[in-house]
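Methods — Computational structure assignment.
A single polypeptide chain was analysed. Its primary sequence is given first, followed by the predicted tertiary structure written as structure tokens.
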Amino acid sequence: PTAARFSPTHPPSTRTPTFVPTYGSPVIAKIYCQGYNEVDGSFMVSISSKVTMISVWESHDDQIEFMWGVSSEDSAFVLKYGLTTSSSLTNEYLVLLPHALDAGQKYAFEIRATNRHGASDNGFINITTASLPRGGLFKVTPSSGTALETEYLFIATNWTSDPSVLPLSYEFFYGE
């Protein structure tokens, strides 16, 4: 809540105390990962998807500044607008670009909210990335042919990954 304090000095003409509002720290109630469920204290995400983290906070001060940070098993990972994020690091939400995170890793994201008087609070969220698909078979029949003439059959069976990212989708394309 907003509190009032009185300045020890008074304007010379009125000798009336000056009202100066003070504000307590902003409170980060929670950070959640949009579109994903929390399991065992962490959100399991797919590296091929955009990941949006949203902070839920409250403050009686309307001038709040935000700053996101991260620590990970991969110490080379950094948050950088345009490289790993599509949102500024000073928003109350953070959007990670697809493929910004590495598969099978753990990340701890932090947001700091600071009011105009320097009072602040931090919120944390743990993100675990799903492992890459594994254990499957990929078969092409026939094994050779002529481009745009030969009809090919692609079979992808028995692939698996972390249950939270199932079902898997498959994409086939021609490349050199």
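Note: The longest strand covers residues 120-129.
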